[in-house]
Design brief:
8-stranded mixed beta sheet, single chain, about 325 residues, about 30% helix, alpha/beta, 4-stranded antiparallel beta sheet
Length: about 325
Amino acid sequence: MTTCLEVNHLTVQFDTEAGPLTAVNDVSFSIRRGEVLGLVGESGCGKSVTAMSLLRLIPRPPGRFTSGEILYNGRDLLTMPIRELRAIRGREISMIFQEPMTALSPLKRVGRQMTELLRLHRPGLTKVQARAEVVTWLRNVGLPDPVERLHNYPFQLSGGMRQRVMIAMAIMLQPALIIADEPTTALDVTIQAQVFDLMLSMKTEATSLLLITHDMGVIWELCDRVIVMYASHIVEEAEKSDLFGDPRHPYTRGLLHAMPRLNEDMARLDAIEGQVPSPLHYPLGCNFQDRCPIAIDRCRAEVPPLHTLPGGRRVACFRAHETDVGDAEEAGHAST
């Protein structure tokens, strides 16, 4: 399977009054053509910053790329002239933002924004043709009365309606890569299922989807491969079946243990003890050390590199190779 996009050693910092804040630290991964890649982790771990970096949408200042490259068709998006990058945004790589009010112009009607985008990348369309296609896509994402909604400003729509407009704008140009940052947060369960079905139907052998979420259930249902982030680092990457069947990083294990199960007591859910460290004051060594039940002295002195294990899985843990790491972790939980 060929590569759609490749990220190498990406580090993103933000300048604050308290000093530099590292939101993404030495992150490397690739997205294969035709796959659904899940990016999962707690709020604040760097998922959204990673996603916005792929299209160079980080506001500068205060943000800055201190290292790395993002290769698309052999070219680095971080150094590409902005005119060329704008031709790629939307047409070849599109993004569904978590909060549509920050992406939609409050001064233009929904129909105008969508038809302008369509005709910008497909100049052969007439206004009538573009309008008809926009109505079709709004209907596809479940927006009620799509013809009427063309005349609405974003503030006249509910949060769920605005999100569906954003989803339609992202997929109507049938890009090579769709970046979806918590794309159904504001939607009810029925519309969520409809939207995910539509996004998957858009995915062909040449179309990839990067799905960013904190919901491991969504990851299980939709993704082929999974990346787990914690406190600015990638801590594990594996095929979905491997990650769910045999997680090797203690943070991944914690996420999976926290998922509710229908065949167990629903009154109590396992939780990961402790707090995520401040990005202004990451500890020396592994960022997960204070919450980890199997941490050793080395974890408090060195940052664990992202090792590649047999089978291609990548794990940033000094104890990932140990076959009894799961038993050791369970014993650590039991003693707390």
